[in-house]
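Notes from hallway chat w/ T.B., transcribed later so I don't forget. T.B. wanted the structure written out for a chain they're using in a teaching module, and asked if we could keep both sequence and structure tokens in one place. Agreed to drop them here.
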Amino acid sequence: MTANYTILYDEACPLCQWYTGLFLKYGLLNEKGRMAYQQLNTVDYPMVDLDKAKDKIACIDQTTGKVVYGIDSLLTILGQRFPIIQKIGSWKLIHFLLSVLYNFISYNRKIIANSKKNTVECACDPSKNYPYRIAFMLLISLATWSMVQTFFTGYLAEFLIEKPVNDGILLIAQLAFQLIAFQLLRQKNSYDYLAHLAFVSFLGALLLGVATIGLEMLHYFDFDTSLLAPVAYGAVILFMFLEHKKRLERNNWSAWLSVTWIVFRMSIYFLVFQS
């Protein structure tokens, strides 16, 4: 049954490679059951909507020629082995929610799983979708604010000034500062850069969340964590700098944006920490 289906995926997207690879590994697709969008022969597959397939992974029924996209592709493949999943996923409300979740990830997939540096623009980059991009940035920014505030109030309180500037405000300020620098340096595609910038902060916040759990465990066993907390925070800042730098290189953006990133971080130090 799996031989009838071919998944059309974005070869330049690590996330797409990962989950279609799982389909192959667990026998939901055969060895020829996935095809890179970049290698698609439009003569053999005229039924594929190329623009739609950029945004939503396509599943081709080789027997009938029918093509489904997005969450319907995943439900079709999973439904071969787990019919109950496809049945539940077809319920209107469930299908709507799954579609929203799928689109949320798909339109932001190049931010979540930043691909390796390409010398040419990828033919399968998702279309710009401002509602999903704004929703993505708002969600990760709220999560970043929550995790950073938890870490700061729990483990860095003694190093903070009496009324430090809220981290949410600082995140917005950083986005604005870097956007100005981005424009002054005459870089292209601020739509993606701002999302990368926000996502780097989110990754740093996740690490602070892991650090919080680790410090809580050490505190439970009566270890002194007073010096470990600032060390962990410093390590996270270093990680964020390197991750930001890596994303600049992969997207062919100016290295000067690393400099402005450091300048901003240094300039806000006295708005948060005691001198």
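Follow-up for T.B.: Residues 130-271 form one domain. Might be a good example for the class.
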